[in-house]
Amino acid sequence: MLYLGADHRGFYLKEKIKEFLDSKKIQYQDLGNFKFDELDDYPDWAIKVAKKIMENPKKNVGILICGTGLGMTIVANKFKGIRAGTVFSSYLAKRGKEEDDLNVFVLASDLTDENTSFRIIEEILKTNFKLEEKYIRRIKKINKIEKNNFK
What we know:
By secondary structure, the chain is α/β, with parallel strands linked by helices. The protein has six helices and five strands. Strand 4 (84-86), helix 4 (90-100) and strand 5 form a beta-alpha-beta unit. The radius of gyration is 15 Å and the shape is globular. 34% of the residues are buried.
């Protein structure tokens, strides 16, 4: 399942992304915010999406949207099994999925227009993690770090 979350700075881009996903008949779940609220806080939405991804981190994918992408990335990466990255292009999305097995992609609404966002999402949905030894080895190292630091 594809899960979406955005704060006030990402709200309008999220709404455009929903229109795009609907037009392509791509299933998703919007976890909020459901209205523009300039006083909301990005951690609230990152937490909701990260928890959903944790339910099945190999199948679920999250897209978070805030102004810079940085805050949402920080919060999402505080959850075990989450590999979140801020992406600004379909190239970064592809590399993040293929090589780093990202399961949460964070968009910066201040820097990423809607058409670029649509191309990023298309790349996320069609790209798979490369099951090559070097990438598997690196993910195992990340998992070991998580095991030692998430008690």
